[in-house]
Here is the input.
Amino acid sequence: MNTLGNLLWLLIAMPLLGCLATLFLRSSRAVLHIVSWGVPIISVLSLGTIFSVFDRAPVFTSGEWLLLDALSAFHLLGLYIIFSISSVYAGVYFSHEPKEQELTLPLARRFGALWFATMATMALVLLSNNLGIMWVGVETTTLVTAFLICLHTSAVSLEATWKYLVVCSVGVAFAFMGILLIGAAVESPGGVGAHVLQWSEVVVAAPNINPQLAKLAFIFLLVGYGTKVGLAPLHSWLPDAHSQAPAPVSAMFSGFLLNMALYCIMRYIPIVEQAPGCAGWAHGLLVVLGMVSIGVAAVFIISQHDLKRLLAYHSVEHLGIIALGLGLGRLGVIAALFHTLNHSICKALGFFSAGRLGQIYGTHDMRRISGALSTHPTWGVGMFGSILALIGVAPFAIFMSEFLIIKAAVETKSYWVLALFLAGAATVFIGALKHAVDMSWGTPSQSVRPQKASVAERALVFLPMGALLVLGLWMPPAFWNFLEAAADVLKVPSP
Here is the structure.
């Protein structure tokens, strides 16, 4: 096993060590400190391994159990960004919780252990070269993250937890059937024998696999992993889980958990698309499911009154946009990957702001939140700015990735898709902007006192917002090359 291959195991092992360490700490403050500092340190130590993939061919461990290529490296980068800023935010958020929801030592240990365990299992999913182990990793994330939703136990949070467990477990069971069908398709003449579930082998054998089984497999996989993604009409668990979980958990869910599930679907696109007579078939399904998600989200965004549920439906919308981009040729794939990172950063900022404003106002009901810009300028700006970015206002980066998706639709002559996308985006723009304006201005309740922000709070607002502005105004050539290399893994030809 080469040295770099050993490091891939280390990317999974380091969060597991953090998980064990939290169980032996003797104060909730110590747990929050190890989370706030440990996750960013692990992330920084891992960056060298991530970017090494661009200096050489994809990296494998011995036995080819783990694989690091441009696609997994890009998603790992998103994982470390979201977990790092969410971990720092967790220290801020839990220090402002009301006394009745104070983070006791047992709760802190549970949060810290599950937080690090979630990071480890997500890294396993992204690095796995075996489709079966990838599935095990996804199911493990469901079990681990479920108990983060009900960290503060209530009837509503328990209901959301059980709904998440049941719906996602049923969905992942569908994905398991898809994996079995892929294995059966590959075991046709020209298959890969003992390596039937090794992605690197299956994608090479794809031009010779059984096309009927490949199509059926992708339907099961799209339904299965699409449930975890939260694509409509498979999204029923998502608004409840996002609204009931503590804000750092909601940020992690929306900022990366959904991306991880969509990553699993991405891995099957080049397999199905290269099967005989299947060109364009998987792409077409992604376009349809993406458009349904955008349309459903637009309807619910207009009628929402809860701020965290509003952000949850924005997740349904934007994951639909990403799925749409994946179905619109090579430029669409590049735009979708760009949108993945933009949405993650923006949604983390949105849930950070919603969490702190909820603590300040004592509610997430948008009808009772007004004058946020004067009550707490930092988090008021964070909330207003994140919603502006989510609805595609220039010059935020989401505007640029959506513009690239529009360009991809024109290149592929998907004019009806373009028309529906613009209609859905316009509906979301009008509905969400009204919510943002109503919360940002007006006269706050007399019971709400203006508050000042700490240095950490300012950093958590203005660094993500600054990143969204920079990427909206300037595309670094190295980052564009990163996106192109990740898109190459999906083997999508230019139109």
About this structure: Residues 329-361 form the longest helix (33 residues). Residues 1-129 form one domain. The radius of gyration is 22 Å.
